[in-house]
Records
---
Amino acid sequence: MLSSSGLLVAVLLAAVLATCEALKEGECEGKLKKPGRRSANLSPVCVTFLGKFYKSLQEHKADMKSDDVEKALLKSCVTAKGKENRFCYYIGATSDAATKMINEVSKPLSYHVPVDKICEKLKKKDGQICELRYDKQMDLSSVDLKKLKVKDLKKILEEWGESCKGCAEKADFIRKIAELMPKYAPGAVTRTDL
């Protein structure tokens, strides 16, 4: 004979199992057996950016009040580039953002909530955040710049935060990249025959 607390536990366990059967088996299995496992559906941009941001707060021994975290996040987003800037835009941390969800990040971070949990909640608020993925990094030491398209050459310069003013031809972009390579990719050897 079960006591009332034992009966309550049995009912709750049955509810959890019923929910798990309704979900995909693999997804539920991961949630029950490995609670610390990060979901594959989370945006690597969200997890990486917020992870770096939280680490910088800890290193600088920042005051972890929600308002201070929000100010630091806004400051960090000013210098963000590429997909990280897009993430900042989605949470409302850029000047041109249409929405404002920054408190969905700053408040949990001030309570030291794990970054992947924050990203899971953001995923529910805005699905675009989940779609953010870093572009595949190009290995400049093994690529022949002459074989790349101008679009790809421009992308390399953009990732470095540089531009090529007055560049009209492909050779101009290649020359600019070769000139900047020691600064941004010191181990890479330029493979061009210009």
Note: The chain has ten helices and no strands.
---
Amino acid sequence: MSDHTSTPPVLGDFAIEVRSKNAGPFWVTMETFMKDGDGYAIAADDAFLNEQVIADLYGVDAGQVQFFRIPALKVVKISFPRPVTQGGLRDRDIHAGQHHVPLATLPVPGRHLAHHGGRP
């Protein structure tokens, strides 16, 4: 019998860590440190995670989103302009330490789960 109460896996389930940080007063960088090669394949799949997805999650211009895929380290780095300048009047996260949450909780499509037996 299947467990219908479980939640679908999210990107963070396949990662050792998903974090965000300041990249100067005008940029935010997020990093996904994946657990293994299969997890990296999910994070690096530009059909799943791409500039438009980040633009939609963070309300930024897709043309300004930058991806850095580093297979040897199983890391995907993503940078984009901060919505407001660091330390500005409307800055709610001066260190950009909370920006990773929407990325870490991004649901992983079912097509990726076959490699993991349906589970992270």
Note: The chain has one domain: 11-85+94-108.
---
Amino acid sequence: MVDFKALETVLWIAQLESFRAAAEKLNTTQPAISVRVAQLEEELGTQLFDRSRRTLTITPAGRQVLTYADRLLRLRAEMLHAVADRTHLSGTFKLGVAETIVHTWLPSFLEQVSNTYPKLALEIEVDISTNLRERLLQQKIDLAFLVGPLSAPAVIQCQLCRFPVSFVASPKIRADIESGSLDEIARWPLLTFARNTQPYVQVTELFADPALPTPRIYASSSLATLIRMALDSLGIAVIPPAIVTVDLAAGRLVDLNISPKLPDLQFVAGWLGTPDRRTFEEVVEIATRVVQQPEFRSDR
């Protein structure tokens, strides 16, 4: 009888175009992957992959097997999620998260995932959205919460939330600001996200007018660092106010309400259309419920 594990192996080899990469994805060894494929080929009486060439290619019979394997594995996943006790769902998957979400609704999300799937383990990777997108396409992570929209055709995405971006500073800096013009703002360092991020690009575009002074931009991939620098009056942070709500409420930071306004950061959940995606879809459903909670709805 054809083994589901062997079918899953064939799918990942075809998608990643490598026995080694498939072994890493499935947390096993390359020899074990080769044994699974060899056993399946012996059982079917046909060759699934052409190993005679430098580049791994799938045979016509292999392509037929892929079609059936994808359907069978999807049906198995649907059955398990429809019938099985969710509290017994186990395994590990890798979640990539943009740091803005870490500072807002991620803790509530993780609590609900843990309550719903107590045996499901998450490996969380925090990075800028540009890197998360690449790691998702490279199969290094399974699911990502990042700035969208995503243009990659292989990625399935779901709108999650949006965060306004504003100029935030300490009361000390606010006291020295009169008009709030861009010329005046440029007297202080601007503290914002790392290069190749949407806020960084938007800040540079905002001051692209030759008539405006060129601001000093301090970029960092660590929001905690930017917040600390803003609290210490080292510059004006260009960040979502949602990540510093406690400091704003306590008066340690103030929103400068500078015009023109910067575009909101729109976050999506992104994952690949693999046969095991049903688990990811259910986890994303939890995320969409979390961002609808009253304490987060003002950020949408």
Note: Residues 163-264 form a domain with the D-Maltodextrin-Binding Protein; domain 2 fold (CATH 3.40.190.10).
---
Amino acid sequence: MSDRSPAIENPWQHLRQLTPARIALGRAGTSLPTAAQLDFQLAHAQARDAVHLALDTDALAAQLEAQGHRCLHLHSAAPDRHTYLQRPDLGRRLSDESAERLGDHARQQQMGYDLAIVIADGLSALAVQRHALPLLQRITEQIEKDGWRLAPVCLVEQGRVALGDEVGEALRARMVVVLLGERPGLSSPDSLGLYFTYAPKRGRTDAERNCISNVRLEGLSYNLAAHRLVHLMREACRRQLSGVSLKDEADMPSLPGDAAKAGNFLLG
């Protein structure tokens, strides 16, 4: 018996330190090594769990209210998670009860809002539970000097992106931002996406929205995501549009220390 491992390492193994992508996994004969196969199965299980995990709206609302935000609890027309996954169209509109509740609130206001923020579970409640609160804190810090009138934060269960347009229209909001759990990947079960629309109304298309994706600790940081979003919102107010006609041309803050000098490792 030989003590030598049957697994053959890939000579590009050191590149794995630079990316979570599944590269340079090596091989055992014509198959993956056992460790790589088990890691893949774990990542797949985590992605499946993230899709089915329920959002704890009560805990999230309590945390938001502790930070001084008012909250409105809403639900899409999809009554449960099983229906939500099979009927995307129901996740794009409010239930009748939630639409009535939102309308009652809007009628009590003498004027509309500049910005409505919607937090929806999407396809990863785990992402919302982990990242929505710290990201929202960064966003509100950056827009304080703009003097925008903020609507109560709308917490939506079983919601999809387009539902934000209905919420924004009902609240007579000039802009709407949807914070939503993105479809889990095999290396990112907790990725949060931001979807921004100027002059929201039902029937808006994806081409009329701006998206900032992969907000998480291993992806786009909270500070950079908030910086890019606020830049888009200010430009949208100036130009009165959003979507493909509004490009993300924000000047990114430099990284501190030596990281700012590192540059692109592929070009170095």
Note: Residues 70-239 form a domain with the Rossmann fold fold (CATH 3.40.50.11240).
